[in-house]
Write a structure and sequence with these properties.
There is one protein chain. With about 475 residues, the chain is α+β, with helices and mostly antiparallel strands. Strands 2, 4, 5, 8, 9, 10, 11, 12, 13, 14 and 15 form an eleven-stranded mixed sheet that branches. The chain is elongated.
Length: about 475
């Protein structure tokens, strides 16, 4: 009896079309398979064997000799199993099966199921809130590319296309968006990695618009963390790292007070679950928030969150951050499609330099010291300046800094760049005590943010005390 009208070697579980496997430290992956075989009516062979192989999809040769036709283990009930070991990173590959009857030549054995577009490379999970999900609305060319694949919300691996957060047929309603997501940074990120590294990249879209960090912290609430783990388990591989863009929902004073610990819990739990104490987390410093009725507390809240994010990149190992103040918006708070391309490029540059060890400049200028030189002069010193801080034709009265002392805001009369790694602020009145300086101030900072001229990497936002020594 063959009620399903099956014939040949059938794959029941294991690899699926478009699947990306996370490589191990040796650059290999393991692919387990199970299946069964079915004979045509009237066939009664004396010997039955199932064979499996991997071939390069752009040719027809086996990947390695050990991955050419290999005989599977067959059980008395007709089930078979096979584990392909030491599959080298790369692809795309095609997996083929074949049913051999009575020692027939393998090239003329009976048909078997195939799996197409397999790859071995790195998988990155997308976490955070709406700007991680992607709400870019402006038209832009950012199409799919073979070798950049997505484990989608319907539980299947696919060619990655926008919107990455398409929730059609979702198996993970916990992170189903209330509105249709659109363009995001991460296809551009993955495509650049794939081109630079020479092997496939997989993405897992686990973010949710409006989510607070508590949703990612199992010690507080953690519903999105658990949802993310279901994605990772179902995709069939661990992940290389996490992409994190979040913080807008935690800018309030009470939320900020708990932010560091909750984010640290997220990172720690992810690393423990993945059994990788060095799993990298690439983070994005908050961009701008625009509106007609932004009050002083809102501005201060966004400044404070950017400083918390900056500090976390120092306090937690393998947590990396980059700013995106040049990224334009689709609305009051969401980066537009061109801005998302910038974010994807910067995230990939950060990954290539910090995670993959390429000899490229990836760190952004960061203020590491502020000192008072005179009653009306403050000098800022920066690290990670590979050439020089750029300011030509951009020295204006609306400086991208704010200075505050015990008497309130101190207007900046002028700023200049006396050295490649220094900025001097000239103030309109003498300073009182307890002075601080903020770079990229308010929820909507000035657009003239200083940047390192090689690579045009803008500075990180910051808030630092001013020293008198």
């Amino acid at each position: 009896m063959n009620p399903k009208n099956e014939y040949g070697a059938i794959i029941d579980s294991g690899a699926t079309d478009w699947q990306i496997y996370q490589q191990n430290n040796a650059g290999h992956a393991t692919i387990p398979l199970t299946g069964h075989y079915a004979l045509a009516e009237g066939q009664k062979p004396q010997q039955v064997a199932v064979y499996v192989r991997l071939v390069r999809e752009d040719g027809y040769e086996a990947i390695t000799a050990s991955l050419n036709w290999q005989q599977a283990t067959i059980h008395p009930d007709g089930a078979w199993q096979m584990t392909l070991r030491n599959v080298p990173r790369g692809g795309l590959y095609r997996l083929e099966t074949s049913l051999q009857l009575d020692n027939a030549p393998i090239e003329w054995s009976c048909r078997g199921d195939m799996v197409h577009h397999l790859g071995v490379g790195d998988i990155w999970v997308i976490t955070g809130q709406s700007n991680a999900a992607g709400y870019g609305k402006t038209p832009v060319e950012d199409g799919p590319e073979m070798g950049v694949h997505l484990f989608a919300a319907d539980g299947r691996w696919k060619l990655a296309t926008h919107p990455l957060g398409d929730s059609t047929g979702t198996l993970y309603p916990t992170n189903r968006e209330g509105a249709n997501a659109s363009h995001s940074p991460w296809l551009a990120f993955a495509r650049r990695l794939k081109q630079a590294l020479g092997y496939p990249i997989g993405l897992i879209p686990a973010s949710l618009g409006g989510s607070a960090v508590a949703s990612w912290d199992r010690k507080t609430q953690g519903c999105l963390f658990e949802n993310m783990l279901r994605y990772i388990t179902d995709c069939g591989s661990p992940v290389k790292g996490a992409l994190w863009y979040q913080g807008e929902s935690d800018t309030g004073e009470a939320e900020r007070a708990a932010y560091k610990q909750r984010f640290a819990n997220f990172v720690s739990d992810l690393r423990q679950t993945m059994k990788d104490s060095h799993l990298p987390v690439i983070t994005v410093q908050l961009n701008r928030y625009v509106g007609e009725e932004l009050t002083a507390p809102v501005h201060a809240n966004w400044e404070a969150m950017r400083e918390i994010q900056r500090q976390l990149s120092h306090e937690l190992k393998e947590v990396y951050i980059f700013p995106i103040f040049e990224a334009t918006l689709s609305d009051g708070i969401h980066n537009d499609s061109l801005g998302n391309l910038l974010i994807g490029q910067r995230a990939a540059t950060t990954a290539l330099g910090a995670v993959y060890g390429q000899d490229i400049a990836w760190r952004h200028p960061e203020c590491v010291g502020a000192r008072q030189l005179a009653s009306t002069v403050i000098e800022l010193t920066f690290e990670n300046v590979t050439g020089r801080l750029h300011g030509e034709n951009k020295i204006r009265s609306d400086a991208p800094f704010s200075v505050r002392d015990s008497q309130g805001d101190v207007p900046i009369a002028h700023y200049n760049l006396p050295a490649n790694d220094k900025i001097s602020l000239t103030l309109s009145r003498p300073l009182a005590d307890t002075v601080s300086v903020t770079g990229a101030p308010t929820a909507n900072p000035p657009y003239d943010i200083p940047f390192d001229i090689p690579g045009y990497r803008c500075m990180l936002g910051f808030t630092l005390p001013v020293s008198t020594h």
